[in-house]
Automatic annotation (TrEMBL):
Domain Histidine kinase: 316-524
PAS domain span: 185-249
Protein name per its UniProtKB record: histidine kinase
Entry-linked Pfam families: GAF_2, HATPase_c, HisKA, PAS_4
EC top class, as a word: transferase
Catalytic activity: ATP + protein L-histidine = ADP + protein N-phospho-L-histidine
Keywords noted in UniProt: ATP-binding, Kinase, Nucleotide-binding, Phosphoprotein, Transferase, Two-component regulatory system
InterPro entries in alphabetical order: GAF, GAF-like_dom_sf, HATPase_C_sf, HATPase_dom, His_kinase_dom, HisK_dim/P_dom, HisK_dim/P_sf, PAS
Amino acid sequence: MKDRGIGQSDRIIKALVDIGQQLASTIDLEELLNRILQISREVFCFENAIIRLVDENSARLLPAASYGYTEEAVDKRIVVGQGIMGKVAQTGQPILVVDLAQSPDYVPGIQGARSELAVPLVARDRVIGVFNVESPRPHAFVAEDIAPLMTMAGQAAIAIENARLYQNLRAVSSRFQELSQFNSRILKSANLGIYTVDAQLQVTSWNRKMEEMSGVGEDQVLGKDLLELFPVLVEEGFDERLLRVLERGEPEKLRLAHRNLRGELRFQKRRIAPLKDGETTTGAVVIVEDITEFKTLMDQTIQSEKLAEVGRLSAGIAHEVNNPLAVISYAAQLLLREEQMPPFQKELAERIESEVERLKTLTGSLLSFSRAKETRKRETELNEVLKDVLRLLRYELNKNSIQLVECYGDLPDIQADPNKLKQVFINLVMNATHAMKGGGILKVSSLCINGQEVEVSIKDNGTGIPEDVLEHIFDPFFSTKSEAEGTGLGLYICRNIILEHEGRIAIDSVPGEGTTFRIVLPTG
């Protein structure tokens, strides 16, 4: 190196100050390395320099920054212990070679190199790399150059190590952030309600599904006491289970009926698992699964099975009863042919025949309930089906002083069994007639919904149906009529026919104001 006097010492001090400033202001490792080389070039006037850092996994010296070297020389593979730089990395001691002609293990660097000086980069008593310079002149470097270069290299090593630590910390922080975001996405996307509480039962997380289930947003529950927010959990006994999990550190599960803040009754399965830090339980995670729809479907399936069994039993009873009824009816008819029969006996025979006819009607309904006829769908004009039914029942409506209002929309043809639909409409119109015994208004209308469904509405202004009766209106054998007027199977059969057509039937009723039946059928 040149100018090894007082000026050189000043430049070294300035270099150390500059590197210290870089240490404080630069966190990007590549930028820091290039700045260190720039400072060393300005201070020591090197024609070339290279910094190689130790890769602990492969024990290689990987190039980190350089100037004055060809690309081929920079990419040269050097391992710890190989060549001059490799030995410096291995021993942690500087090496000065004044004549490379006498160094057989020299790894080629600059073209025509004759001398080389390599010093270790040591941080926290560990060699993290090597600072190396070369010259085409022999004896270009002397022993006095080692100390200032080591001083600068030590300061540079600290800066490099801190930049590395910052990069590692930033990478770890980034990974934790990604993991946190990933966990958050899982919680938000889960189709189960998931929330956590700490040991004091304060809510620490609340996913989107819980917001939907409870009707309470995340910002309204975080940091709040769970049992104060939802006192119904105490009534359900859920608080005891939760406290037991926190105390014992063992999971539990339960199934219950829960009424949320909106007043809706929902059926839920809940699993409570402890959150642990080592052996200490610090909180609990609660997983909530709403099984209301599943329970409803299961109840319907069980009910269907029960009804199927009742149907089979009804069919058997109907067949068994029909045989003696036929004999009784025939006998009653023979008795009525007797001309000399006293009036009292004739009245009894007529009563027998009348009751037999009523029993035949009942057994006929039982057979319809248990063994429905095959549904034969075809292109059907729904408005024409309605008009046919109303023409058939016009006399009945007039007899009961019922005013008929018809309002037909422009409907596409549908795939349906017209005879079965007539059975439905006759039943509904007759029910409306019975509800308006003193006269009233019956409105029959149809409309098309979005081109995919058609709706028929049958509305009366009769007595209406009480709320407790509405719950059972489609149940088989349920009827508010007298025993002589109905069997309680009409609406049940109507609903089954609509279900066969992949449609739905709904009822709205207000006691004292009237009732509306709505039938929706698909157009396809």
